[in-house]
Amino acid sequence: MLRVQMDLFERSLLPGLRLGENIVSPAAERTLIGAIDAAHLSPFRFQGWLGKRVTASFGWRYDFENASFGPAEPIPEFLLPLRESAASFAGLPAGSLAQALLIRYDPGAGIGWHRDRPLFERVVGISLGAPAVLRFRRRAAAGFDRANAPLAPRSIYHLSGDARHLWEHSIAKMDVAR
């Protein structure tokens, strides 16, 4: 059983970025990690290149090999309570979160600078297992403006507005698995 627990503490680093902590209990986190590890995750593929992270898409998928978007297997039952919590945090109806992308970052894996595809208007992410750093940058006259958002295990973030559309984001390489 998934028990949602969220602190009243929220942080805002950039306009359009909301951060929260303790979206799930430690026990629920362990259960989710086990279910994610049991899912069929595959190496991330991008234009002939294999990434160090492994992924699985549900609901919808974006294929980076041929730039196509299409349906995927339905979001698994074990993720539906988490989707409810994520939607509540973001102030969205749960059904509007129609895609779930599972990503496991093993040691040495991260994700480079990017903006998510425009068809994904809002991005809600949940970090499990190990601390991570969500980095932001945007072009400025003298290079880049930068900001870092540390993500504790069991934390959540929501990108909309400026953080979603005017800033690129990345995940720093992980030292430990998750």
TrEMBL record:
Residues 96-178 form the Fe2OG dioxygenase domain. It comes from Methylocella silvestris. One of its GO terms (molecular function) is demethylase activity. Coiled coil: none annotated. Transmembrane segments: none annotated. This is 2OG-Fe(II) oxygenase. PROSITE patterns: FE2OG_OXY (PS51471). GO terms for biological process: demethylation. It comes from the Bacteria.
